[in-house]
UniProtKB/TrEMBL annotation:
Superkingdom field: Bacteria
Gene3D superfamilies membership: Spore Coat Polysaccharide Biosynthesis Protein SpsA, Chain A (3.90.550.10)
Protein name: Glycosyltransferase 2-like domain-containing protein
Cited InterPro entries: Glyco_trans_2-like, Nucleotide-diphossugar_trans
Xref: Pfam families: Glycos_transf_2
Domain Glycosyltransferase 2-like: 7-141
Molecular function terms, GO-annotated: hexosyltransferase activity
Upper classification of the organism: Bacteria, Candidatus Colwelliibacteriota
Length: 331
Protein backbone atom coordinates (compact mmCIF):
# COMPACT_ATOMS: atom_id res chain seq x y z
CA UNK A 1 0.00 0.00 0.00
CA UNK A 2 1.39 3.41 -0.99
CA UNK A 3 1.75 5.76 1.95
CA UNK A 4 -0.12 9.07 1.58
CA UNK A 5 1.91 12.12 0.62
CA UNK A 6 1.95 14.73 3.39
CA UNK A 7 2.17 18.39 2.38
CA UNK A 8 3.82 20.33 5.20
CA UNK A 9 2.97 24.04 5.24
CA UNK A 10 5.34 26.46 6.95
CA UNK A 11 4.70 30.19 7.17
CA UNK A 12 7.73 32.19 8.21
CA UNK A 13 8.69 35.79 8.79
CA UNK A 14 12.04 36.86 10.28
CA UNK A 15 12.63 33.46 11.86
CA UNK A 16 16.40 33.36 11.26
CA UNK A 17 16.94 32.13 14.81
CA UNK A 18 14.52 29.20 14.48
CA UNK A 19 13.97 28.25 10.83
CA UNK A 20 16.97 25.89 10.58
CA UNK A 21 15.70 23.82 13.50
CA UNK A 22 12.24 23.79 11.91
CA UNK A 23 13.46 22.49 8.54
CA UNK A 24 15.89 19.99 10.04
CA UNK A 25 13.08 18.50 12.12
CA UNK A 26 11.18 17.88 8.87
CA UNK A 27 14.11 16.40 6.97
CA UNK A 28 14.84 14.04 9.88
CA UNK A 29 11.34 12.53 9.83
CA UNK A 30 11.26 8.73 9.82
CA UNK A 31 8.30 9.04 7.41
CA UNK A 32 9.86 10.22 4.18
CA UNK A 33 6.89 10.73 1.87
CA UNK A 34 6.35 14.47 2.23
CA UNK A 35 6.79 17.82 0.56
CA UNK A 36 7.69 20.92 2.55
CA UNK A 37 6.10 24.14 1.29
CA UNK A 38 7.67 27.21 2.90
CA UNK A 39 5.95 30.56 2.40
CA UNK A 40 8.13 33.52 3.42
CA UNK A 41 6.15 36.70 4.10
CA UNK A 42 9.00 38.97 3.00
CA UNK A 43 11.53 38.35 5.77
CA UNK A 44 14.09 41.13 6.21
CA UNK A 45 16.65 39.02 8.10
CA UNK A 46 18.63 35.98 6.88
CA UNK A 47 15.66 33.60 6.80
CA UNK A 48 15.80 33.30 3.00
CA UNK A 49 19.51 32.48 2.93
CA UNK A 50 19.07 29.80 5.59
CA UNK A 51 16.18 28.15 3.74
CA UNK A 52 18.06 28.20 0.43
CA UNK A 53 21.07 26.53 2.07
CA UNK A 54 19.05 23.29 2.17
CA UNK A 55 19.33 21.33 -1.08
CA UNK A 56 16.45 18.86 -0.93
CA UNK A 57 13.95 18.49 -3.76
CA UNK A 58 11.13 18.03 -1.25
CA UNK A 59 11.48 21.65 -0.10
CA UNK A 60 9.51 24.24 -2.10
CA UNK A 61 10.32 27.79 -1.05
CA UNK A 62 8.27 30.82 -2.07
CA UNK A 63 9.17 34.35 -1.04
CA UNK A 64 6.38 36.94 -1.22
CA UNK A 65 6.11 40.66 -0.40
CA UNK A 66 5.45 41.30 3.27
CA UNK A 67 1.75 41.69 4.06
CA UNK A 68 1.60 40.84 7.76
CA UNK A 69 -0.79 39.02 10.06
CA UNK A 70 -3.97 40.19 8.37
CA UNK A 71 -3.17 37.98 5.37
CA UNK A 72 -2.16 34.78 7.17
CA UNK A 73 -5.19 32.97 5.78
CA UNK A 74 -4.34 34.15 2.28
CA UNK A 75 -0.76 32.89 2.66
CA UNK A 76 -1.87 29.51 4.02
CA UNK A 77 -4.29 29.11 1.14
CA UNK A 78 -1.59 29.96 -1.39
CA UNK A 79 0.37 27.05 0.06
CA UNK A 80 -2.75 24.88 -0.02
CA UNK A 81 -3.14 25.54 -3.74
CA UNK A 82 0.43 24.31 -4.24
CA UNK A 83 -0.09 21.20 -2.10
CA UNK A 84 -0.09 17.80 -3.82
CA UNK A 85 -0.53 15.68 -0.71
CA UNK A 86 -3.59 13.84 0.55
CA UNK A 87 -2.77 15.16 4.03
CA UNK A 88 -1.74 18.59 5.31
CA UNK A 89 0.52 19.16 8.32
CA UNK A 90 1.18 22.59 9.82
CA UNK A 91 4.56 23.71 11.12
CA UNK A 92 5.20 27.41 11.62
CA UNK A 93 8.73 28.67 11.15
CA UNK A 94 9.52 28.95 14.85
CA UNK A 95 8.20 25.49 15.80
CA UNK A 96 9.62 22.00 15.21
CA UNK A 97 8.76 18.29 15.40
CA UNK A 98 9.95 15.04 16.95
CA UNK A 99 11.42 12.69 14.35
CA UNK A 100 8.41 10.34 14.34
CA UNK A 101 5.57 12.88 14.16
CA UNK A 102 4.45 12.01 10.62
CA UNK A 103 4.90 8.28 11.18
CA UNK A 104 2.59 8.43 14.19
CA UNK A 105 -0.19 10.48 12.64
CA UNK A 106 -0.39 9.69 8.92
CA UNK A 107 -1.65 6.10 9.49
CA UNK A 108 -4.54 7.45 11.58
CA UNK A 109 -6.19 8.65 8.36
CA UNK A 110 -6.62 5.09 7.08
CA UNK A 111 -9.99 5.41 8.80
CA UNK A 112 -11.98 7.29 6.17
CA UNK A 113 -14.14 9.05 8.78
CA UNK A 114 -11.09 10.83 10.26
CA UNK A 115 -10.59 14.35 8.91
CA UNK A 116 -8.37 15.83 11.65
CA UNK A 117 -5.62 14.55 13.92
CA UNK A 118 -3.97 16.24 16.88
CA UNK A 119 -2.00 15.44 19.99
CA UNK A 120 0.14 16.84 22.75
CA UNK A 121 2.93 19.33 22.27
CA UNK A 122 5.92 20.23 24.37
CA UNK A 123 6.22 23.96 24.92
CA UNK A 124 9.75 25.35 24.70
CA UNK A 125 11.26 28.80 25.10
CA UNK A 126 13.46 30.74 22.66
CA UNK A 127 16.50 28.75 23.86
CA UNK A 128 14.82 25.35 23.26
CA UNK A 129 14.43 24.85 27.01
CA UNK A 130 11.37 22.72 27.73
CA UNK A 131 8.62 24.37 29.74
CA UNK A 132 5.90 21.71 29.89
CA UNK A 133 3.69 19.42 27.82
CA UNK A 134 0.13 20.45 26.97
CA UNK A 135 -2.67 19.80 27.26
CA UNK A 136 -2.35 18.18 30.68
CA UNK A 137 -5.52 16.08 30.31
CA UNK A 138 -5.96 12.84 28.37
CA UNK A 139 -7.09 13.14 24.75
CA UNK A 140 -8.29 9.55 24.61
CA UNK A 141 -11.98 10.35 25.00
CA UNK A 142 -14.88 10.33 22.57
CA UNK A 143 -15.35 14.07 23.10
CA UNK A 144 -11.83 14.97 21.95
CA UNK A 145 -12.21 12.47 19.08
CA UNK A 146 -15.32 14.43 18.07
CA UNK A 147 -17.58 11.39 18.39
CA UNK A 148 -20.32 11.96 17.44
CA UNK A 149 -19.52 14.72 14.97
CA UNK A 150 -19.81 18.09 16.68
CA UNK A 151 -19.09 16.76 20.17
CA UNK A 152 -15.76 18.58 20.47
CA UNK A 153 -17.59 21.91 20.24
CA UNK A 154 -18.64 21.36 23.86
CA UNK A 155 -15.04 22.28 24.74
CA UNK A 156 -13.66 24.02 21.66
CA UNK A 157 -16.16 26.87 21.84
CA UNK A 158 -14.78 27.72 25.28
CA UNK A 159 -11.03 27.24 24.88
CA UNK A 160 -8.59 25.99 22.28
CA UNK A 161 -6.08 23.38 23.51
CA UNK A 162 -5.09 22.35 19.95
CA UNK A 163 -1.61 23.62 19.05
CA UNK A 164 -0.92 23.81 15.33
CA UNK A 165 2.38 21.83 15.25
CA UNK A 166 0.42 18.80 16.47
CA UNK A 167 -2.22 19.04 13.74
CA UNK A 168 -2.69 17.01 10.57
CA UNK A 169 -5.67 17.53 8.22
CA UNK A 170 -7.30 15.67 5.37
CA UNK A 171 -6.66 17.85 2.32
CA UNK A 172 -9.97 17.15 0.59
CA UNK A 173 -11.91 18.23 3.69
CA UNK A 174 -9.86 21.39 4.05
CA UNK A 175 -10.61 22.31 0.46
CA UNK A 176 -14.29 21.47 0.92
CA UNK A 177 -14.65 24.07 3.69
CA UNK A 178 -12.98 26.68 1.51
CA UNK A 179 -9.44 26.31 2.82
CA UNK A 180 -7.93 27.90 5.90
CA UNK A 181 -10.30 30.38 7.52
CA UNK A 182 -9.27 33.81 8.78
CA UNK A 183 -12.06 36.24 9.64
CA UNK A 184 -11.13 39.92 9.10
CA UNK A 185 -11.10 40.53 12.86
CA UNK A 186 -8.59 37.82 13.80
CA UNK A 187 -4.78 37.66 13.35
CA UNK A 188 -4.90 33.85 13.27
CA UNK A 189 -6.29 30.98 11.23
CA UNK A 190 -6.06 27.96 13.50
CA UNK A 191 -9.08 28.38 15.79
CA UNK A 192 -11.67 29.26 13.09
CA UNK A 193 -10.42 26.38 10.94
CA UNK A 194 -10.59 23.88 13.81
CA UNK A 195 -14.18 24.92 14.56
CA UNK A 196 -15.26 24.28 10.98
CA UNK A 197 -13.54 20.88 10.97
CA UNK A 198 -15.58 19.94 14.05
CA UNK A 199 -18.63 19.73 11.77
CA UNK A 200 -16.93 17.65 9.05
CA UNK A 201 -15.85 14.33 10.58
CA UNK A 202 -14.13 12.60 13.47
CA UNK A 203 -10.77 13.48 15.01
CA UNK A 204 -7.90 11.07 15.72
CA UNK A 205 -5.98 11.96 18.88
CA UNK A 206 -2.76 10.84 20.51
CA UNK A 207 -1.46 11.39 24.03
CA UNK A 208 2.10 11.35 22.71
CA UNK A 209 4.07 14.51 21.98
CA UNK A 210 3.85 15.21 18.23
CA UNK A 211 5.12 18.78 18.14
CA UNK A 212 7.26 21.39 19.85
CA UNK A 213 5.52 24.74 20.26
CA UNK A 214 7.73 27.73 20.88
CA UNK A 215 6.83 30.52 23.29
CA UNK A 216 8.88 33.69 22.88
CA UNK A 217 8.41 37.44 23.40
CA UNK A 218 7.70 38.43 19.77
CA UNK A 219 4.77 36.05 19.31
CA UNK A 220 1.39 37.56 18.49
CA UNK A 221 -0.22 35.58 21.30
CA UNK A 222 2.43 36.77 23.76
CA UNK A 223 1.89 40.43 22.93
CA UNK A 224 -1.86 40.63 22.29
CA UNK A 225 -3.25 37.95 24.57
CA UNK A 226 -6.17 39.91 26.02
CA UNK A 227 -7.19 41.47 22.71
CA UNK A 228 -7.04 38.13 20.93
CA UNK A 229 -9.17 36.46 23.60
CA UNK A 230 -11.89 39.05 23.07
CA UNK A 231 -11.77 38.61 19.29
CA UNK A 232 -11.82 34.82 19.64
CA UNK A 233 -14.87 34.99 21.92
CA UNK A 234 -16.72 37.15 19.41
CA UNK A 235 -15.82 34.75 16.62
CA UNK A 236 -16.98 31.75 18.69
CA UNK A 237 -20.36 33.43 19.13
CA UNK A 238 -20.55 34.22 15.42
CA UNK A 239 -19.64 30.65 14.49
CA UNK A 240 -22.18 29.18 16.93
CA UNK A 241 -24.94 31.18 15.25
CA UNK A 242 -24.22 29.25 12.02
CA UNK A 243 -24.38 25.81 13.66
CA UNK A 244 -27.58 23.89 13.03
CA UNK A 245 -30.22 23.91 15.74
CA UNK A 246 -29.98 20.11 15.82
CA UNK A 247 -26.29 20.19 16.77
CA UNK A 248 -26.83 23.02 19.26
CA UNK A 249 -29.62 21.09 20.97
CA UNK A 250 -27.78 17.76 20.87
CA UNK A 251 -24.77 19.17 22.75
CA UNK A 252 -26.57 21.94 24.66
CA UNK A 253 -24.51 24.71 23.08
CA UNK A 254 -25.54 28.26 23.94
CA UNK A 255 -24.24 31.72 23.24
CA UNK A 256 -24.93 32.72 26.84
CA UNK A 257 -22.51 30.07 28.11
CA UNK A 258 -19.83 31.20 25.64
CA UNK A 259 -20.24 34.83 26.76
CA UNK A 260 -20.04 33.95 30.47
CA UNK A 261 -16.93 31.88 29.84
CA UNK A 262 -15.26 34.83 28.13
CA UNK A 263 -16.06 37.13 31.06
CA UNK A 264 -14.43 34.65 33.45
CA UNK A 265 -11.36 34.40 31.22
CA UNK A 266 -11.15 38.19 30.95
CA UNK A 267 -10.92 38.50 34.74
CA UNK A 268 -8.37 35.69 34.85
CA UNK A 269 -6.32 37.65 32.30
CA UNK A 270 -5.69 40.29 34.98
CA UNK A 271 -3.64 37.68 36.84
CA UNK A 272 -1.59 36.84 33.75
CA UNK A 273 -0.92 40.52 33.08
CA UNK A 274 0.02 40.94 36.74
CA UNK A 275 2.55 38.10 36.48
CA UNK A 276 4.21 39.74 33.49
CA UNK A 277 4.40 43.06 35.32
CA UNK A 278 5.94 41.38 38.38
CA UNK A 279 8.64 39.93 36.14
CA UNK A 280 9.39 43.46 34.88
CA UNK A 281 9.41 44.67 38.50
CA UNK A 282 6.58 47.10 37.78
CA UNK A 283 5.17 46.56 41.25
CA UNK A 284 2.50 49.27 41.31
CA UNK A 285 1.06 48.33 37.90
CA UNK A 286 1.07 44.65 38.85
CA UNK A 287 -0.77 45.44 42.07
CA UNK A 288 -3.48 47.27 40.11
CA UNK A 289 -4.05 44.22 37.88
CA UNK A 290 -4.27 41.86 40.82
CA UNK A 291 -6.66 44.24 42.58
CA UNK A 292 -9.05 43.87 39.62
CA UNK A 293 -8.79 40.08 39.90
CA UNK A 294 -9.43 40.27 43.65
CA UNK A 295 -12.49 42.44 43.12
CA UNK A 296 -14.18 40.74 40.16
CA UNK A 297 -12.98 37.13 40.11
CA UNK A 298 -14.33 33.85 41.43
CA UNK A 299 -12.80 32.29 44.56
CA UNK A 300 -9.69 30.89 42.85
CA UNK A 301 -9.06 34.09 40.90
CA UNK A 302 -9.49 36.18 44.06
CA UNK A 303 -6.95 33.94 45.79
CA UNK A 304 -4.49 34.54 42.95
CA UNK A 305 -5.23 38.25 43.23
CA UNK A 306 -4.40 38.26 46.94
CA UNK A 307 -1.15 36.37 46.35
CA UNK A 308 -0.22 38.74 43.54
CA UNK A 309 -0.82 41.81 45.67
CA UNK A 310 1.38 40.30 48.38
CA UNK A 311 4.10 39.60 45.81
CA UNK A 312 3.93 43.18 44.52
CA UNK A 313 4.29 44.58 48.04
CA UNK A 314 7.21 42.30 48.93
CA UNK A 315 8.82 42.68 45.49
CA UNK A 316 9.00 39.10 44.20
CA UNK A 317 7.48 37.37 41.19
CA UNK A 318 5.10 34.38 41.04
CA UNK A 319 7.07 32.04 38.79
CA UNK A 320 8.18 29.83 41.67
CA UNK A 321 4.50 29.02 42.27
CA UNK A 322 3.97 28.16 38.60
CA UNK A 323 6.90 25.75 38.82
CA UNK A 324 5.50 24.08 41.95
CA UNK A 325 2.07 23.68 40.30
CA UNK A 326 3.60 22.48 36.99
CA UNK A 327 2.02 25.36 35.12
CA UNK A 328 3.60 27.23 32.18
CA UNK A 329 6.15 29.80 33.30
CA UNK A 330 6.57 33.21 31.73
CA UNK A 331 10.37 33.16 31.79
Amino acid sequence: MIKPLVSIITLTYNHERFIRTCIESVLHQSYGRFEHIIIDDGSTDTTEQIVRSFHDSRIRYVRLPHEGLATMGKRYNEALRMARGELIAILEGDDFWPYDKLAKQAPLFENSSVVFSWGKVRQVDHNDQEIDSVPLFSLDTSLWRNEPIGAVLQKLLFFNPIRSPSVMLRTSTLRNIGGFIQPPSLPLVDYPTWLHFALQGTFATTNEVVGFYRIHPVQVTSNQGGNIEEMVALYALSFLSTVSSVIRAQFELSGEAVSKNYERRKVSRFCTEGRRLLLRQEWRAARARYAHALRYGDFLTRLKGALGITASLLHFDMEFLAKILHRPRLR
